[in-house]
């Protein structure tokens, strides 16, 4: 539904159980949302917005733009449930599964980029209160908050990966070149 509506000029940057992030060739996010109007719920838009439509509010099966007032300008996806992005109004979102919220706030966007560039990982010390044998304990643990290693994917280069079993792995092994770097999706062409 999405690829034909956008004339094939779209890439999925990441997907999760209930969300995904698309990179689409368009002059604005409103243009993309207009092209996808048959599958989108825009009830969360301001009422004076031209795309506002409350008829699909609370209906399941429709997509929703969760970044109504801004556009994502930079995205770094390390692995499942571990990504960060910045918007055009300098708002930053960082997700790292297993890391407590108060420590997530200390993780900087640049650390996500560094993980990709250097193929490394970042650890964070977390403190929590736990009960053991009816005694409260203050426990400090070290958690790998982000890593560029993903045991479910094969790295073609520091930026691109494919799931194990992909035909692109054999192509990479024979050419030693990343398919996506050789055949990029060029916006604006």
SSE blueprint:
Blueprint: H1 2-5, E1 10-15, E2 20-24, H2 29-35, E3 72-79, E4 82-87, E5 92-96, H3 101-104, H4 109-118, E6 121-132, E7 135-147, E8 153-155, E9 161-163, H5 167-175, H6 179-182
Antiparallel strand pairs: 1-2, 3-4, 4-5, 6-7, 8-9
How would you characterize the overall build of this protein?
The chain is an alpha+beta fold and 189 residues long. It has helices at residues 2-5, 29-35, 101-104, 109-118, 167-175, 179-182; strands at residues 10-15, 20-24, 72-79, 82-87, 92-96, 121-132, 135-147, 153-155, 161-163. The strands form four sheets. Strands 3-4-5 form a three-stranded antiparallel β-sheet, covered by helices on one side. The two termini are 23 Å apart. The relative contact order is 0.10. The model has no long low-confidence stretch (mean pLDDT 86).
Can you summarize the main beta sheet? 3 strands, antiparallel
Give the low-pLDDT segments.
Answer: none
Number of helices: 6
Report the span from N to C terminus.
23 Å
Question: Residue share in helices?
Answer: 10-25%
Shape: globular
Secondary-structure-derived class: alpha+beta
Order of helices and strands: HEEHEEEHHEEEEHH
State mean pLDDT (0 to 100 scale): 86
Task: Indicate the radius of gyration in whole angstroms.
Answer: 20 Å
Strand content: 25-35%
Short account of what is shown:
About 20% of the residues lie in helices and about 30% in strands. It has helices at about 1-5, 30-35, 100-105, 110-120, 165-175, 180; strands at about 10-15, 20-25, 70-80, 80-85, 90-95, 120-130, 135-145, 155, 160-165.
């Amino acid at each position: 539904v999405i690829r034909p509506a956008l004339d094939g000029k779209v890439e999925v940057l990441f997907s999760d159980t209930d969300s995904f992030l698309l990179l689409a060739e368009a002059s604005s996010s409103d243009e993309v949302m207009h092209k996808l109007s048959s599958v989108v719920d825009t009830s969360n838009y301001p009422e004076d917005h031209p795309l506002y439509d409350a008829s699909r509010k609370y209906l399941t099966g429709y997509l929703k733009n969760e970044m109504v007032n801004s556009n994502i300008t930079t995205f770094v996806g390390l692995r499942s449930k571990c990504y960060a992005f910045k918007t055009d109004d300098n708002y930053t979102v960082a997700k790292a599964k297993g890391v407590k919220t108060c420590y997530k706030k200390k993780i900087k966007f640049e650390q996500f980029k560094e993980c990709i560039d250097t193929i490394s990982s970042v650890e964070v010390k977390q403190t929590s209160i736990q009960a053991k044998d009816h005694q409260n304990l203050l426990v400090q643990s070290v958690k790998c908050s982000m890593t560029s290693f993903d045991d479910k994917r094969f790295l073609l280069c520091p930026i691109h990966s494919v799931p194990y079993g992909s035909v692109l792995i054999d192509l990479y092994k024979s050419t030693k070149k990343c398919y996506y770097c050789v055949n990029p999706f060029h916006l604006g062409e």
